[in-house]
TrEMBL record:
InterPro entries: NAD(P)-bd_dom_sf, Sc_DH/Rdtase_CS, SDR_fam. This is NAD(P)-dependent dehydrogenase, short-chain alcohol dehydrogenase family. It comes from Actinacidiphila glaucinigra. Keywords: Oxidoreductase. Belongs to the short-chain dehydrogenases/reductases (SDR) family. One of its GO terms (molecular function) is oxidoreductase activity. CDD domains: SDR_c.
Amino acid sequence: MSSRLESKVVIVTGGTSGMGAAFARRAASEGATVVIGARDKARGEAAVAGIAAAGGRASFLPTDVTTEDDVSRLVDYAVTEFGGLHGAFNNAGGGDNQRTFGTTDAAFWDHMIATNLTSVFYSLKHELPAITASGGGSIVNNASTAAVVGDAGMPAYVAAKHGVVGLTRSAALDSAKAGVRVNALVTGLIDTPLWRSAIQAYPEIEDRFLGQIPTGRPGAEEDVAAFAAFLLSDESRFVNGAALAIDGGFTAR
């Protein structure tokens, strides 16, 4: 494995499972010191132990990304414990997104926006000055194909993910001269625990989603991890403010 992330301190939100955990492992294998923020302490400690067993450097701090104080604490922890911050993969999000306009009440709307959009705002708000003070770096926000296309039956999720792309572009413009790049992943169907739980709850969506992917299969967590690692490395130094599809051709249709 390359060492292109050597000496970089990188935050991963939602880093205890799925794409976040895969990225944490990948970043550590490429030399980064990884700081994982997530709610589940037992899973966070297990993720750190797995990275350490493979020879990587990682730490965990219990974090609810919908609470600004928690996000601020996570960033301060990375800077204080490891001497700076050079990158972040803002991956936390999700939720039961299969609700129509008619079944979306105010509480559900607020929950989805907080989980998938406000959390990214809090992360950017605190990461950007820390990365600037550390000499610059890169942030990747994990959005979704729902960030660039509509989908029936999930208005709150689609609105939140569209907002992530807007935040990404605004942050990229705000911070370009400070040497901080910000990009978004337009992530398609990836074989994660979240996806597997979704098809258990709504079996009818599996064939519908797979039928819309030209490659005919889901992506792997490692596909996203590799792409995010590239965007956080200096090899992508001229990529900024982009919403980049990793979706098997879904959005090319």
